[in-house]
Design brief:
Blueprint: H1 8-11, H2 14-25, E1 29-36, E2 39-45, E3 49-55, E4 62-65, H3 76-88, H4 90-94, H5 105-114, H6 118-131, H7 133-143, H8 147-164, H9 174-196, H10 200-217, H11 227-245, H12 248-263, H13 265-268, H14 273-283, H15 287-301, H16 316-333, H17 335-343, H18 349-361, H19 365-381, H20 388-401, H21 405-419, H22 422-431, H23 434-449, H24 455-464, H25 468-474, H26 479-493, H27 495-512, H28 516-531, H29 536-544, H30 548-553
Antiparallel strand pairs: 1-2, 2-3, 3-4
Length: about 550
Protein backbone atom coordinates (compact mmCIF):
# COMPACT_ATOMS: atom_id res chain seq x y z
CA UNK A 1 0.00 0.00 0.00
CA UNK A 2 1.33 3.43 -0.91
CA UNK A 3 1.93 5.93 1.89
CA UNK A 4 -0.08 9.17 2.08
CA UNK A 5 -0.73 11.83 4.68
CA UNK A 6 -4.17 10.35 5.29
CA UNK A 7 -3.19 6.69 5.74
CA UNK A 8 0.30 6.83 7.31
CA UNK A 9 -1.08 5.62 10.68
CA UNK A 10 -2.33 2.45 8.99
CA UNK A 11 0.64 1.81 6.72
CA UNK A 12 3.55 2.33 9.12
CA UNK A 13 4.16 -0.51 11.59
CA UNK A 14 2.48 0.09 14.95
CA UNK A 15 5.68 -0.12 17.03
CA UNK A 16 7.42 2.41 14.75
CA UNK A 17 4.36 4.64 14.89
CA UNK A 18 4.38 4.54 18.71
CA UNK A 19 8.04 5.50 18.88
CA UNK A 20 7.48 8.29 16.36
CA UNK A 21 4.54 9.59 18.41
CA UNK A 22 6.71 9.59 21.52
CA UNK A 23 9.41 11.57 19.68
CA UNK A 24 6.81 14.07 18.48
CA UNK A 25 5.22 14.42 21.93
CA UNK A 26 8.65 15.01 23.48
CA UNK A 27 9.39 17.77 20.96
CA UNK A 28 12.17 15.85 19.22
CA UNK A 29 11.14 17.36 15.85
CA UNK A 30 13.29 20.45 16.30
CA UNK A 31 12.67 21.98 12.85
CA UNK A 32 10.02 21.59 10.18
CA UNK A 33 9.59 23.67 7.07
CA UNK A 34 7.78 23.29 3.77
CA UNK A 35 10.39 23.74 1.05
CA UNK A 36 7.95 23.54 -1.83
CA UNK A 37 4.32 22.56 -2.39
CA UNK A 38 3.83 19.31 -0.41
CA UNK A 39 7.60 18.91 0.17
CA UNK A 40 8.86 19.13 3.76
CA UNK A 41 12.31 19.21 5.31
CA UNK A 42 12.67 18.46 9.02
CA UNK A 43 15.29 17.78 11.65
CA UNK A 44 14.76 15.24 14.42
CA UNK A 45 16.85 14.82 17.56
CA UNK A 46 17.58 11.20 18.42
CA UNK A 47 20.91 9.66 19.41
CA UNK A 48 22.16 12.16 16.83
CA UNK A 49 20.44 14.81 14.71
CA UNK A 50 18.84 13.43 11.54
CA UNK A 51 17.40 15.15 8.48
CA UNK A 52 14.07 13.88 7.21
CA UNK A 53 12.64 14.71 3.78
CA UNK A 54 8.99 14.11 2.91
CA UNK A 55 7.97 14.51 -0.73
CA UNK A 56 4.23 14.31 -1.34
CA UNK A 57 4.13 16.36 -4.52
CA UNK A 58 2.30 13.62 -6.47
CA UNK A 59 0.02 12.53 -3.62
CA UNK A 60 2.13 9.53 -2.61
CA UNK A 61 4.73 10.18 0.08
CA UNK A 62 8.40 9.49 -0.61
CA UNK A 63 10.30 9.63 2.69
CA UNK A 64 13.99 9.60 3.51
CA UNK A 65 15.99 9.93 6.71
CA UNK A 66 19.72 10.19 7.33
CA UNK A 67 19.57 7.74 10.26
CA UNK A 68 21.13 4.23 9.86
CA UNK A 69 17.85 2.33 10.38
CA UNK A 70 17.78 -0.82 8.20
CA UNK A 71 14.89 -2.92 9.52
CA UNK A 72 12.06 -1.51 7.49
CA UNK A 73 10.97 1.12 5.02
CA UNK A 74 10.02 3.80 7.57
CA UNK A 75 11.85 4.78 10.75
CA UNK A 76 10.55 6.46 13.90
CA UNK A 77 12.03 9.81 12.77
CA UNK A 78 9.87 9.78 9.63
CA UNK A 79 6.84 8.87 11.75
CA UNK A 80 7.55 11.74 14.16
CA UNK A 81 7.74 14.21 11.26
CA UNK A 82 4.46 12.94 9.81
CA UNK A 83 2.76 13.62 13.17
CA UNK A 84 4.30 17.12 13.11
CA UNK A 85 2.97 17.72 9.59
CA UNK A 86 -0.44 16.51 10.69
CA UNK A 87 -0.48 19.15 13.41
CA UNK A 88 1.20 22.09 11.67
CA UNK A 89 -0.09 21.56 8.13
CA UNK A 90 -3.51 20.08 8.83
CA UNK A 91 -4.95 21.59 5.68
CA UNK A 92 -2.96 19.03 3.66
CA UNK A 93 -4.50 16.19 5.64
CA UNK A 94 -8.02 17.57 5.26
CA UNK A 95 -7.54 18.38 1.57
CA UNK A 96 -8.28 22.09 1.98
CA UNK A 97 -4.81 23.41 1.13
CA UNK A 98 -4.48 25.89 -1.68
CA UNK A 99 -1.42 25.91 -3.91
CA UNK A 100 0.07 29.18 -2.73
CA UNK A 101 3.74 28.15 -2.69
CA UNK A 102 6.01 27.22 0.18
CA UNK A 103 4.82 27.86 3.69
CA UNK A 104 7.43 28.65 6.34
CA UNK A 105 7.65 30.16 9.77
CA UNK A 106 9.68 33.04 8.37
CA UNK A 107 6.94 34.01 5.91
CA UNK A 108 4.23 33.82 8.55
CA UNK A 109 6.22 35.85 11.07
CA UNK A 110 7.03 38.61 8.58
CA UNK A 111 3.32 39.03 7.89
CA UNK A 112 2.45 38.93 11.57
CA UNK A 113 5.05 41.54 12.58
CA UNK A 114 4.03 43.89 9.79
CA UNK A 115 0.50 43.91 11.23
CA UNK A 116 1.64 44.90 14.73
CA UNK A 117 1.48 48.50 15.91
CA UNK A 118 4.64 50.34 16.97
CA UNK A 119 3.62 50.12 20.63
CA UNK A 120 3.04 46.35 20.35
CA UNK A 121 6.43 45.82 18.78
CA UNK A 122 8.22 47.82 21.48
CA UNK A 123 6.36 46.03 24.25
CA UNK A 124 7.20 42.62 22.81
CA UNK A 125 10.87 43.49 22.30
CA UNK A 126 11.19 44.70 25.89
CA UNK A 127 9.59 41.48 27.14
CA UNK A 128 12.17 39.47 25.21
CA UNK A 129 15.00 41.67 26.52
CA UNK A 130 13.87 40.93 30.07
CA UNK A 131 13.62 37.18 29.44
CA UNK A 132 16.52 36.46 27.10
CA UNK A 133 20.00 37.77 27.83
CA UNK A 134 21.34 36.71 24.43
CA UNK A 135 18.57 38.59 22.68
CA UNK A 136 19.36 41.68 24.75
CA UNK A 137 23.07 41.48 23.89
CA UNK A 138 22.33 40.96 20.19
CA UNK A 139 19.96 43.92 20.17
CA UNK A 140 22.52 46.21 21.82
CA UNK A 141 25.36 44.94 19.63
CA UNK A 142 23.32 45.49 16.47
CA UNK A 143 22.30 49.08 17.22
CA UNK A 144 24.86 50.51 19.67
CA UNK A 145 27.01 53.17 17.93
CA UNK A 146 30.23 52.33 19.83
CA UNK A 147 32.21 49.71 17.82
CA UNK A 148 34.24 48.51 20.80
CA UNK A 149 31.14 48.03 22.91
CA UNK A 150 29.41 46.28 20.02
CA UNK A 151 32.29 43.77 19.65
CA UNK A 152 32.24 43.05 23.40
CA UNK A 153 28.49 42.43 23.32
CA UNK A 154 28.80 40.00 20.43
CA UNK A 155 31.51 38.13 22.35
CA UNK A 156 29.24 38.00 25.40
CA UNK A 157 26.52 36.47 23.22
CA UNK A 158 28.87 33.79 21.85
CA UNK A 159 30.13 32.88 25.32
CA UNK A 160 26.58 32.80 26.69
CA UNK A 161 25.46 30.41 23.93
CA UNK A 162 28.39 28.08 24.56
CA UNK A 163 28.07 28.15 28.35
CA UNK A 164 24.35 27.39 28.14
CA UNK A 165 25.12 24.10 26.34
CA UNK A 166 27.98 23.11 28.70
CA UNK A 167 27.74 21.26 32.00
CA UNK A 168 28.77 22.76 35.33
CA UNK A 169 32.39 21.72 34.70
CA UNK A 170 32.43 23.49 31.35
CA UNK A 171 32.29 20.41 29.13
CA UNK A 172 29.95 20.18 26.15
CA UNK A 173 28.60 16.94 24.68
CA UNK A 174 27.82 16.31 21.01
CA UNK A 175 24.12 17.20 21.30
CA UNK A 176 25.01 20.46 23.03
CA UNK A 177 27.53 21.26 20.29
CA UNK A 178 24.82 20.71 17.70
CA UNK A 179 22.40 23.05 19.45
CA UNK A 180 25.11 25.67 19.94
CA UNK A 181 26.08 25.45 16.28
CA UNK A 182 22.51 26.20 15.22
CA UNK A 183 22.54 29.44 17.24
CA UNK A 184 26.05 30.44 16.14
CA UNK A 185 25.02 29.93 12.51
CA UNK A 186 22.47 32.71 13.00
CA UNK A 187 25.34 35.00 14.01
CA UNK A 188 27.33 33.96 10.93
CA UNK A 189 24.31 34.77 8.77
CA UNK A 190 24.03 38.16 10.49
CA UNK A 191 27.72 38.84 9.76
CA UNK A 192 27.27 37.92 6.08
CA UNK A 193 24.20 40.14 5.84
CA UNK A 194 26.09 43.05 7.44
CA UNK A 195 28.94 42.58 4.97
CA UNK A 196 26.49 42.55 2.04
CA UNK A 197 25.09 45.88 3.30
CA UNK A 198 28.61 47.33 3.46
CA UNK A 199 28.63 47.34 7.28
CA UNK A 200 32.13 45.88 7.43
CA UNK A 201 32.90 46.97 10.99
CA UNK A 202 29.85 45.14 12.32
CA UNK A 203 30.68 42.07 10.28
CA UNK A 204 34.25 42.08 11.63
CA UNK A 205 32.91 42.37 15.19
CA UNK A 206 30.76 39.27 14.74
CA UNK A 207 33.42 37.17 13.01
CA UNK A 208 36.07 38.02 15.61
CA UNK A 209 33.64 37.34 18.47
CA UNK A 210 32.88 33.90 17.03
CA UNK A 211 36.56 33.08 16.58
CA UNK A 212 37.56 34.19 20.08
CA UNK A 213 34.56 32.65 21.82
CA UNK A 214 34.62 29.25 20.13
CA UNK A 215 38.42 28.96 20.40
CA UNK A 216 38.13 29.48 24.15
CA UNK A 217 35.71 26.55 24.55
CA UNK A 218 36.65 24.19 21.70
CA UNK A 219 39.11 22.03 23.68
CA UNK A 220 36.31 21.08 26.09
CA UNK A 221 33.74 20.19 23.45
CA UNK A 222 32.83 16.80 21.95
CA UNK A 223 32.66 18.16 18.43
CA UNK A 224 32.69 14.76 16.69
CA UNK A 225 30.83 16.09 13.65
CA UNK A 226 33.08 19.14 13.36
CA UNK A 227 30.14 21.54 13.65
CA UNK A 228 31.86 24.13 15.82
CA UNK A 229 35.07 23.79 13.82
CA UNK A 230 32.91 24.47 10.78
CA UNK A 231 31.77 27.72 12.38
CA UNK A 232 35.43 28.66 12.94
CA UNK A 233 36.28 27.91 9.31
CA UNK A 234 33.36 29.99 8.04
CA UNK A 235 34.28 32.90 10.33
CA UNK A 236 37.88 32.76 9.09
CA UNK A 237 36.68 32.74 5.49
CA UNK A 238 34.43 35.73 6.14
CA UNK A 239 37.26 37.63 7.81
CA UNK A 240 39.60 36.83 4.93
CA UNK A 241 37.13 38.25 2.42
CA UNK A 242 36.81 41.44 4.45
CA UNK A 243 40.59 41.76 4.60
CA UNK A 244 40.70 42.59 0.90
CA UNK A 245 37.72 44.92 0.56
CA UNK A 246 37.33 46.81 3.84
CA UNK A 247 38.59 50.33 4.49
CA UNK A 248 42.18 50.74 5.82
CA UNK A 249 40.96 51.40 9.37
CA UNK A 250 38.91 48.20 9.39
CA UNK A 251 41.77 46.24 7.84
CA UNK A 252 44.05 47.53 10.59
CA UNK A 253 41.56 46.24 13.16
CA UNK A 254 41.53 42.84 11.45
CA UNK A 255 45.35 42.79 11.48
CA UNK A 256 45.50 43.63 15.18
CA UNK A 257 42.95 40.94 16.05
CA UNK A 258 44.74 38.25 14.03
CA UNK A 259 48.14 39.00 15.56
CA UNK A 260 46.73 39.11 19.09
CA UNK A 261 44.64 35.95 18.69
CA UNK A 262 47.54 34.05 17.07
CA UNK A 263 49.79 34.93 20.00
CA UNK A 264 47.50 33.25 22.54
CA UNK A 265 48.41 29.71 23.71
CA UNK A 266 45.05 28.32 22.52
CA UNK A 267 45.85 29.27 18.90
CA UNK A 268 48.81 26.90 18.70
CA UNK A 269 46.53 24.00 19.68
CA UNK A 270 43.84 24.71 17.12
CA UNK A 271 43.43 25.04 13.38
CA UNK A 272 43.22 28.83 13.55
CA UNK A 273 46.88 29.81 13.93
CA UNK A 274 48.13 29.86 10.37
CA UNK A 275 44.85 31.02 8.79
CA UNK A 276 44.91 33.99 11.21
CA UNK A 277 48.49 34.88 10.25
CA UNK A 278 47.67 34.46 6.55
CA UNK A 279 44.80 36.92 6.96
CA UNK A 280 47.14 39.30 8.79
CA UNK A 281 49.58 39.05 5.86
CA UNK A 282 46.83 40.33 3.56
CA UNK A 283 45.93 43.29 5.76
CA UNK A 284 49.18 44.86 6.95
CA UNK A 285 49.73 48.40 5.68
CA UNK A 286 53.19 49.56 6.81
CA UNK A 287 56.71 48.64 7.92
CA UNK A 288 55.75 48.43 11.59
CA UNK A 289 53.04 45.89 10.85
CA UNK A 290 55.42 43.96 8.58
CA UNK A 291 58.00 43.69 11.35
CA UNK A 292 55.31 42.59 13.79
CA UNK A 293 54.01 39.98 11.36
CA UNK A 294 57.52 38.62 10.72
CA UNK A 295 58.07 38.16 14.46
CA UNK A 296 54.70 36.50 15.13
CA UNK A 297 55.26 33.10 13.41
CA UNK A 298 58.64 32.60 15.09
CA UNK A 299 57.24 33.48 18.51
CA UNK A 300 54.29 31.14 18.08
CA UNK A 301 56.27 28.16 16.78
CA UNK A 302 58.75 28.58 19.64
CA UNK A 303 61.84 28.69 17.46
CA UNK A 304 63.57 30.85 14.89
CA UNK A 305 61.94 29.77 11.65
CA UNK A 306 64.64 31.51 9.58
CA UNK A 307 67.49 29.42 11.05
CA UNK A 308 69.13 27.18 8.46
CA UNK A 309 69.25 23.47 9.31
CA UNK A 310 71.91 21.07 7.97
CA UNK A 311 69.35 18.43 6.98
CA UNK A 312 65.97 18.18 5.32
CA UNK A 313 62.99 19.20 7.43
CA UNK A 314 59.24 19.08 6.90
CA UNK A 315 58.15 20.91 10.06
CA UNK A 316 54.69 22.31 9.46
CA UNK A 317 55.17 25.33 11.71
CA UNK A 318 58.49 26.35 10.16
CA UNK A 319 57.18 25.89 6.63
CA UNK A 320 54.00 27.86 7.31
CA UNK A 321 56.00 30.67 8.91
CA UNK A 322 58.30 30.89 5.89
CA UNK A 323 55.38 30.79 3.45
CA UNK A 324 53.73 33.75 5.18
CA UNK A 325 56.93 35.77 5.00
CA UNK A 326 57.53 34.67 1.41
CA UNK A 327 54.13 35.98 0.31
CA UNK A 328 54.93 39.39 1.77
CA UNK A 329 58.44 39.48 0.31
CA UNK A 330 57.18 38.47 -3.13
CA UNK A 331 54.48 41.15 -3.02
CA UNK A 332 56.53 43.93 -1.48
CA UNK A 333 60.13 43.27 -2.54
CA UNK A 334 59.85 41.51 -5.89
CA UNK A 335 60.65 38.11 -7.43
CA UNK A 336 64.42 38.18 -6.93
CA UNK A 337 64.08 38.88 -3.22
CA UNK A 338 61.62 35.99 -3.03
CA UNK A 339 64.13 33.65 -4.74
CA UNK A 340 66.90 34.71 -2.35
CA UNK A 341 64.60 34.14 0.64
CA UNK A 342 63.61 30.66 -0.57
CA UNK A 343 67.28 29.78 -1.14
CA UNK A 344 67.96 30.45 2.55
CA UNK A 345 65.25 27.96 3.56
CA UNK A 346 65.79 24.99 1.26
CA UNK A 347 66.19 22.73 4.31
CA UNK A 348 62.36 22.85 4.32
CA UNK A 349 61.22 20.32 1.74
CA UNK A 350 58.21 22.30 0.56
CA UNK A 351 60.29 25.45 0.13
CA UNK A 352 62.92 23.52 -1.83
CA UNK A 353 60.17 22.16 -4.10
CA UNK A 354 58.77 25.67 -4.59
CA UNK A 355 62.24 26.97 -5.50
CA UNK A 356 62.74 24.10 -7.97
CA UNK A 357 59.44 24.97 -9.64
CA UNK A 358 60.43 28.65 -9.85
CA UNK A 359 63.70 27.79 -11.59
CA UNK A 360 62.05 25.32 -13.98
CA UNK A 361 59.38 27.81 -14.98
CA UNK A 362 62.08 30.41 -15.64
CA UNK A 363 64.11 27.97 -17.77
CA UNK A 364 66.98 27.66 -15.27
CA UNK A 365 67.01 23.89 -15.66
CA UNK A 366 70.59 23.35 -14.46
CA UNK A 367 69.83 24.97 -11.10
CA UNK A 368 66.59 23.00 -10.80
CA UNK A 369 68.49 19.75 -11.55
CA UNK A 370 71.05 20.49 -8.86
CA UNK A 371 68.37 21.23 -6.24
CA UNK A 372 66.48 18.03 -7.11
CA UNK A 373 69.62 15.87 -6.92
CA UNK A 374 70.59 17.40 -3.57
CA UNK A 375 67.08 16.81 -2.21
CA UNK A 376 67.05 13.14 -3.22
CA UNK A 377 70.53 12.52 -1.81
CA UNK A 378 69.66 14.16 1.51
CA UNK A 379 66.39 12.21 1.77
CA UNK A 380 68.25 8.94 1.23
CA UNK A 381 71.11 9.95 3.53
CA UNK A 382 68.76 10.62 6.42
CA UNK A 383 66.49 7.65 5.64
CA UNK A 384 63.43 9.69 4.69
CA UNK A 385 62.00 7.64 1.77
CA UNK A 386 58.70 9.54 1.83
CA UNK A 387 60.55 12.67 0.69
CA UNK A 388 62.10 11.02 -2.37
CA UNK A 389 58.87 10.72 -4.40
CA UNK A 390 58.07 14.48 -4.53
CA UNK A 391 61.54 15.16 -5.89
CA UNK A 392 61.24 12.29 -8.35
CA UNK A 393 58.03 13.85 -9.67
CA UNK A 394 59.89 17.12 -10.22
CA UNK A 395 62.74 15.18 -11.82
CA UNK A 396 60.23 13.71 -14.26
CA UNK A 397 58.87 17.18 -15.01
CA UNK A 398 62.43 18.38 -15.58
CA UNK A 399 63.11 15.49 -17.99
CA UNK A 400 60.01 16.53 -19.94
CA UNK A 401 61.32 20.11 -20.07
CA UNK A 402 64.63 18.76 -21.39
CA UNK A 403 62.81 16.54 -23.93
CA UNK A 404 64.48 13.34 -22.72
CA UNK A 405 61.96 10.53 -23.51
CA UNK A 406 64.23 7.73 -22.26
CA UNK A 407 64.55 9.31 -18.81
CA UNK A 408 60.85 10.25 -18.77
CA UNK A 409 59.94 6.61 -19.48
CA UNK A 410 62.26 5.34 -16.74
CA UNK A 411 60.97 7.80 -14.13
CA UNK A 412 57.32 7.29 -15.07
CA UNK A 413 57.66 3.53 -14.59
CA UNK A 414 59.43 3.99 -11.27
CA UNK A 415 56.74 6.38 -10.01
CA UNK A 416 53.93 4.12 -11.24
CA UNK A 417 55.30 1.20 -9.21
CA UNK A 418 55.81 3.28 -6.07
CA UNK A 419 53.02 5.87 -6.12
CA UNK A 420 50.27 3.80 -7.80
CA UNK A 421 49.00 6.72 -9.86
CA UNK A 422 47.34 5.89 -13.20
CA UNK A 423 48.65 9.18 -14.63
CA UNK A 424 52.04 7.53 -15.10
CA UNK A 425 50.49 4.49 -16.78
CA UNK A 426 48.87 6.61 -19.45
CA UNK A 427 52.03 8.71 -19.81
CA UNK A 428 53.94 5.50 -20.51
CA UNK A 429 51.33 4.55 -23.10
CA UNK A 430 52.27 7.67 -25.08
CA UNK A 431 55.97 6.77 -24.93
CA UNK A 432 55.94 3.05 -25.77
CA UNK A 433 55.40 2.13 -29.46
CA UNK A 434 51.87 0.67 -30.04
CA UNK A 435 53.29 -2.62 -31.30
CA UNK A 436 55.16 -3.11 -28.01
CA UNK A 437 52.50 -1.77 -25.66
CA UNK A 438 50.56 -4.99 -24.97
CA UNK A 439 53.63 -6.88 -23.81
CA UNK A 440 54.96 -3.85 -21.91
CA UNK A 441 51.67 -3.12 -20.12
CA UNK A 442 51.14 -6.80 -19.19
CA UNK A 443 54.55 -6.77 -17.49
CA UNK A 444 53.64 -3.53 -15.68
CA UNK A 445 50.37 -5.01 -14.44
CA UNK A 446 52.08 -8.21 -13.33
CA UNK A 447 54.54 -6.13 -11.30
CA UNK A 448 51.67 -4.13 -9.78
CA UNK A 449 49.75 -7.27 -8.83
CA UNK A 450 52.77 -8.52 -6.88
CA UNK A 451 52.33 -5.52 -4.60
CA UNK A 452 49.38 -5.28 -2.24
CA UNK A 453 48.86 -1.59 -2.95
CA UNK A 454 48.89 -2.14 -6.70
CA UNK A 455 45.58 -4.01 -6.92
CA UNK A 456 43.35 -0.92 -6.85
CA UNK A 457 45.37 0.66 -9.65
CA UNK A 458 45.11 -2.46 -11.80
CA UNK A 459 41.32 -2.43 -11.39
CA UNK A 460 41.27 1.23 -12.46
CA UNK A 461 43.44 0.48 -15.48
CA UNK A 462 41.29 -2.48 -16.58
CA UNK A 463 38.17 -0.34 -16.32
CA UNK A 464 39.59 2.67 -18.18
CA UNK A 465 41.15 0.47 -20.85
CA UNK A 466 37.89 -1.57 -21.11
CA UNK A 467 39.74 -4.82 -20.49
CA UNK A 468 36.55 -6.49 -19.31
CA UNK A 469 37.73 -10.11 -19.47
CA UNK A 470 40.76 -9.27 -17.36
CA UNK A 471 38.50 -7.46 -14.89
CA UNK A 472 36.20 -10.49 -14.72
CA UNK A 473 39.14 -12.83 -14.05
CA UNK A 474 40.32 -10.56 -11.25
CA UNK A 475 36.89 -10.37 -9.56
CA UNK A 476 37.25 -13.43 -7.26
CA UNK A 477 40.46 -11.93 -5.86
CA UNK A 478 39.03 -8.45 -5.37
CA UNK A 479 35.27 -9.02 -5.12
CA UNK A 480 34.29 -6.00 -3.06
CA UNK A 481 36.52 -3.67 -5.08
CA UNK A 482 35.15 -4.77 -8.46
CA UNK A 483 31.58 -6.08 -8.30
CA UNK A 484 29.79 -3.17 -6.54
CA UNK A 485 31.25 -0.62 -8.97
CA UNK A 486 31.56 -2.58 -12.22
CA UNK A 487 28.90 -5.31 -12.19
CA UNK A 488 26.81 -3.67 -14.95
CA UNK A 489 29.39 -3.78 -17.80
CA UNK A 490 30.47 -7.26 -16.67
CA UNK A 491 26.88 -8.61 -16.57
CA UNK A 492 26.24 -7.15 -20.02
CA UNK A 493 29.26 -8.93 -21.55
CA UNK A 494 29.51 -12.10 -19.43
CA UNK A 495 26.05 -12.99 -18.05
CA UNK A 496 26.67 -16.73 -17.50
CA UNK A 497 30.06 -16.15 -15.90
CA UNK A 498 28.60 -13.52 -13.58
CA UNK A 499 25.79 -15.87 -12.50
CA UNK A 500 28.43 -18.47 -11.65
CA UNK A 501 30.41 -15.90 -9.64
CA UNK A 502 27.30 -14.77 -7.76
CA UNK A 503 26.35 -18.37 -6.91
CA UNK A 504 29.85 -19.02 -5.52
CA UNK A 505 29.73 -15.83 -3.47
CA UNK A 506 26.38 -16.62 -1.81
CA UNK A 507 27.48 -19.55 0.43
CA UNK A 508 30.67 -17.69 1.36
CA UNK A 509 28.59 -14.69 2.44
CA UNK A 510 26.24 -16.79 4.57
CA UNK A 511 29.14 -18.67 6.14
CA UNK A 512 30.95 -15.58 7.36
CA UNK A 513 27.97 -13.22 7.76
CA UNK A 514 24.99 -15.27 8.99
CA UNK A 515 23.12 -12.13 10.06
CA UNK A 516 20.63 -9.69 8.62
CA UNK A 517 23.38 -7.85 6.77
CA UNK A 518 24.44 -11.09 5.13
CA UNK A 519 20.82 -11.88 4.17
CA UNK A 520 20.42 -8.43 2.67
CA UNK A 521 23.52 -8.87 0.53
CA UNK A 522 22.51 -12.37 -0.54
CA UNK A 523 19.10 -10.97 -1.48
CA UNK A 524 20.87 -8.43 -3.67
CA UNK A 525 22.94 -11.15 -5.37
CA UNK A 526 19.81 -13.22 -5.98
CA UNK A 527 18.12 -10.27 -7.61
CA UNK A 528 21.11 -9.93 -9.94
CA UNK A 529 20.89 -13.61 -10.83
CA UNK A 530 17.15 -13.38 -11.49
CA UNK A 531 17.68 -10.29 -13.69
CA UNK A 532 20.13 -12.31 -15.75
CA UNK A 533 17.42 -14.86 -16.49
CA UNK A 534 18.05 -17.55 -13.87
CA UNK A 535 15.48 -18.96 -11.44
CA UNK A 536 17.48 -17.88 -8.45
CA UNK A 537 15.40 -17.76 -5.29
CA UNK A 538 13.76 -21.15 -5.12
CA UNK A 539 16.76 -23.24 -6.19
CA UNK A 540 19.31 -21.60 -3.91
CA UNK A 541 17.08 -21.35 -0.85
CA UNK A 542 16.05 -25.00 -1.03
CA UNK A 543 19.60 -26.14 -1.68
CA UNK A 544 21.15 -24.23 1.21
CA UNK A 545 18.13 -24.31 3.59
CA UNK A 546 18.00 -20.58 4.16
CA UNK A 547 15.20 -18.44 5.51
CA UNK A 548 13.26 -17.88 2.27
CA UNK A 549 10.84 -15.44 3.89
CA UNK A 550 13.61 -13.25 5.19
CA UNK A 551 15.33 -13.31 1.81
CA UNK A 552 12.14 -12.17 0.12
CA UNK A 553 11.88 -9.27 2.58
CA UNK A 554 15.45 -8.29 1.80
Amino acid sequence: MTLTLKNFKKVIASEILERGRSYFDNERVVALEMQDERMWLAEVEGSDFYEVEIDGSDGTLICSCTCPYEHGVHCKHVAAVLFAIEEQFSEYIEGTAKKTGPKSAKTDLAKLVSNLSKEERIAFIMEQVAQDRNFANSLRARFVPDKTQSAALYLQTVNSILRAESDRDGYMETAGAHRAEKKLRHMLAEADAASARGEYDRSVSIFTALLSGIATHITRVEDDSGELLGCIEDALEGLEQLATKAAPQTRAAIFAFCIQEASLPRASRSETLWPLLNIAARTFVGSAEREQLFRAPDAVSGQNATRREPILSFGVDQTSAVEIKLEIIRREDGPQAALDFMAKHIHLTKIRSMLIAEHMNAGRLDIAHKLITEGIELAKQYNLPGLVAPYQKQRLELAQHEDDPVLVKHLARELLLTQYDATYYFLLKTLVPPAEWKMYSDKLIADLLEQRSGLALVIQIYYQEERWKDLLDLAPRAWHSIIPQHHEPLEKRFPKEMVALYEKQIPATMKFNPNRGGYRYVGELLRHIRALGEDALGVNVQKLRWNATLLKEC
